[in-house]
Amino acid sequence: MQYESERIEYKSQITSDIYKEVIAFANTDGGIIYIGIDDRGNMIGIDDVDEAYTRLTNGIRDAIVPDVTMFLRYVLKENKVIQIEVGEGSYKPYYLKSKGMKPTGVYVRQGASSVQASFDQIRRMIKNSDGDVFEEMRTVAQELSFDEAERAFRRYKVDFSEEKYIALGLRNTNDEQYTNLAMILSDQCQHTTKIAVFGDEANITFKDAKEFGGSIFRQLDDSYSYLALCNRTAATFKGLERVERSDYPEEALREALLNALIHRDYSYSGSIIINVNDSGIEFISIGGLLPGLSADDIRSGISQPRNRKLAEIFHRLKLIESYGTGIRKIYAYYRDCAAQPRIEVTANTFKLVLPNMNANVTAVGNAPAVTESSSMVVTPQMKTMMDYLAEYGEMTDEDLQELLNIKKTRAYLLARQMQENGLIDIIGRGVAKKYKLKS
């Protein structure tokens, strides 16, 4: 009598457990399932072989994804026994359609048992099947929504219908499962951007910190809005003329943020780190340079995108012009500045440092620079809001968003900072909330 083993499984009758056994063998090294033999090896047979065979073949086809039928061979044995020969699949992991590509739906063979696969085993199977390009691999999380992505594509007048998902790289061509690129664009994106504001150049004394999550498009908008609030202005005088200059060129902030979001290594779970202090802003993204590139190459505009399909999407939305131009633009914005941007690279990180253009700067004509107090920064947007309040007395949250053409999150952050700086009063909450100049 032959016993169950790593390659042999007995089932006395057809049950839903048979699907798990097929999956386990296909995800491991293959095996044989006998239906009509109990777990002690005794032949008991099946009453209606034809009905059982039809139910079995249809059930396996409908219950398991990707399609595993090409790796199966059915043999009708004597004594009313069905033999299923399962070969090792070439597009692992195979899983229960009703459970999805997660441990409750993915099984592997372990000794004489079929057990749930771990997340690490699932990721390893995906990598072996899909290759080593992270954004093209199937994502473990398949229940995704794209509200933010749809808004971004609509804003830039680009089609984002489901028919375009495969062409964009959001679904693969084999079984139309979502890719890691889809996960990055989705509202369920697991990666975040962290921004910390420090009161010292050693980045030890915290003043404020924010973490932005959700779709990469949401992170782009929220992070840029917050950095804009950190971008103070300084005033110098040339004769009687007052000349104002921001700490950082807005375009440089934008390009540095886009560079961090597009080129980071998303196969790691860590966050993009942005550190802000009085001397500069550090953009630190996970993933060093790709093999063959140096920091000098990057400064010269040579680029080999790690996430090619992600970069193509941002190019299609006209958020970037072409590969490699962002860093060159940043250096161009600092052309006449004494302090230049810096690129620092390790094996696993890429750091871009933007110097504060107003740090230790003297005014034109050797007059001392007059820098607004950090607690009383008045940006152009703040001044526009204050001019409106001086004219009309009060405004609603919707008025603010319409006046400055900004989104709700940006309006909230702006108003809160102005309140903290003693520039305005916030009266009421929710839809009844109004803003007035500080009395």
Report on the architecture of this protein.
It is a single chain. The protein has helices spanning 17-27, 49-63, 119-130, 147-155, 165-168, 180-185, 216-230, 250-263, 295-299, 308-316, 325-333, 380-392, 397-404, 408-420, and strands at residues 8-11, 31-35, 64-65, 72-77, 81-86, 95-96, 107-110, 113-116, 193-198, 206-212, 233-238, 241-246, 272-276, 280-286, 342-345, 349-355, 370-371, 395-396, 424-427, 434-437. It has 439 residues and is an alpha+beta fold. The strands form six sheets. It has a six-stranded mixed beta sheet with strand order 10-9-13-14-16-15, covered by helices on one side. Strands 1-2-5-4 form a four-stranded mixed beta sheet. A three-stranded antiparallel beta sheet has the order 12-11-17, with no helix packed on it. A hairpin with a 2-residue loop joins β11 (233-238) and β12 (241-246). α7 (216-230) runs antiparallel to α8 (250-263), α8 packs antiparallel against α11 and α13 crosses α14 (408-420). Mean pLDDT is 87; it is low at 362-375.
